[in-house]
Amino acid sequence: GEDVKPFTPGKAKEIVMSLQQPAVFCNMAGDWPALHWNAKYLSAVLDGKTIQFRLGLKTVDLVPQFETRCSYVKATLEEFLAWSCGQPSCLSGPFSCYEYSKYWAYADYKYIARIFEDKPEIFQDIRWSDFGFPGRSGKESTLWIGSEGANTPCHLDSYGCNLVLQVQGRKRWHLFPPGDTSFLYPTRIPYEESSIFSKVNVANPDLKCFPKFRNATAHVVTLSPGQVLLVPRHWWHYVESIDPITISINSWIELDADHKARVEEAITRMLVCAVKSAENPSDGDLWLNPTEVEATSHEINLQYLNKAVSAYFNCQKASVSEQARPSSTGAEQRTSASCKRKKRKVGCEPESCRLLTHEFGFSTFKAEKLQKIPFGPHLIEVLPQSQETSSMGAIAVGSDSRDPHEIEGGHFGKLHCTRKQSVMSNDCETPAHQMDSDTSPNASQTALSTNDLLDCLVNPHVISLVAQLLLERTRV
Length: 476
What we know:
Layout: H1 9-18, E1 23-25, H2 39-46, E2 51-57, E3 71-75, H3 77-84, E4 103-111, H4 112-115, E5 142-147, E6 151-157, E7 161-168, E8 171-176, E9 186-187, E10 195-198, E11 219-223, E12 228-231, E13 236-241, E14 245-253, H5 258-277, H6 298-323, H7 350-354, E15 379-381, E16 395-396, H8 421-424, H9 450-457, H10 460-475
Parallel strand pairs: 11-16
Antiparallel strand pairs: 1-12, 1-15, 2-3, 2-4, 4-5, 5-14, 6-10, 6-13, 7-12, 7-14, 8-11, 8-13, 9-10
Helix pairs in contact: 5-6, 5-9, 5-10
């Protein structure tokens, strides 16, 4: 018979929509066919189809390896597997310039609907309906294939919450709560809609440049095959592959709060594009993430902002009218296809994708709905690291689903300066006693840059306030 799940779909959805801290679901996906999606199986299914891999250096730098600093190759999964095994055939293939001992490779953010468009039957191998999202499958999911050391720089996603299924190998997640945002030195350079990056390389932080990072509290967990991690809204995360081959599948779950977030993102896009486009292009600043096709014009950005504001008010009206109606059926409550970072790359226009209306009738569960979160062997709380734990120590959630109280939990140490240190050395805060008596910066301080201004101008707290003021003005 079918595996009995520890949580019903309804209960799992309540947890997903109301839990405000990361947690690992165990024994919820054991019967999913997608758990057989190891690299060899996917290589056979893709049958020679090439996908893009991002390559970065394994050496640990003080600076995050943003996507603008990486190399890219197109290769088959077969070629990737041969390279990761050190086979001689790689001497002439797409990975020939990248020694396995020095580089990692990551096929990240691969939309399953795109890479398996000719095999739609495979979408049903992923069953998010078990988490209370009927009809949600691989079509609304993203695939991640990496070698050991492959990582995603620390960032937060502006939209939604995130469910991540680990399929092959293990990944270590370093998560920080939304309240730690100021300690993580947020930046919108490189710019990408829906991603706010941290200037901190959490794997090798440098406190000389970013001393406030001392105050950040890391929640670290190692995710093993069969487990599903819930990343709540606006939790920062740095993710690294710790086994030779890792495969994950995720789906971003749309939330009501995303409607205001889209207004905030539209404001951010408008300001970043306007300011950076005015700069001298010869400066060579790679400010646009490779996932963004081009810097959109001021006119297009203004249209986008107006559509985001209209969608916000339309959704508010729909929400009010929904409250007066009986609750929707399960099918109507299905969350829409996730619209996260990278969507622009696959040709999804803002008005058709990011500015979703309330047509699917999804709504957030209020926190009060769950009087008590059912933590235990099937739902394991990711606790903060204790200060006694080494800064790179991690919590491994074993397949035996240990009791959450066994999980050690603390603070991370150290921080980093940005890539162009000669230009951006002002990222390192200058103590007051080092300033000259006439209040001018001393000789060691470099002049402020455009990026310094933008880090303040489009700081998440500032943008949130601007969006609120703009919505109040529009409401009148």
